[in-house]
Input
Amino acid sequence: MPVKKEAQDALKRSKKIKSVFKIPVRETVLQYSGSIEIPWHILKTSGLLPGEKITVYNRTSGAVFETYIIDSRRRTNGVRLFGPAARLGQAGDILDLVVYAMS
Output
């Protein structure tokens, strides 16, 4: 059965607009409300912004979750996971970070 034009227009498609691939987890901290801390130099080069909603794909465990970004002033090559997000990764895991927009 063909989909009506109105229904097609109502459907939104998500589009990847920013991403960082193969970034390691440096540390996890359970006692926090939940987020991912990304070093400032990675934010600057990728265009990611503090407070932005991000989808995290854990290549090591297969977990996928959404959280928000916290800026870290430390210059490291890894991220820190806080709160519930810390349960979905551990030090040494490899993550892909993606921000989507609706089009």
Q: What stands out?
A: The helical segments are 5-10, 40-46. The first helix runs from residue 5 to 10. The CA atoms of residues 32 and 83 lie 5 Å apart.
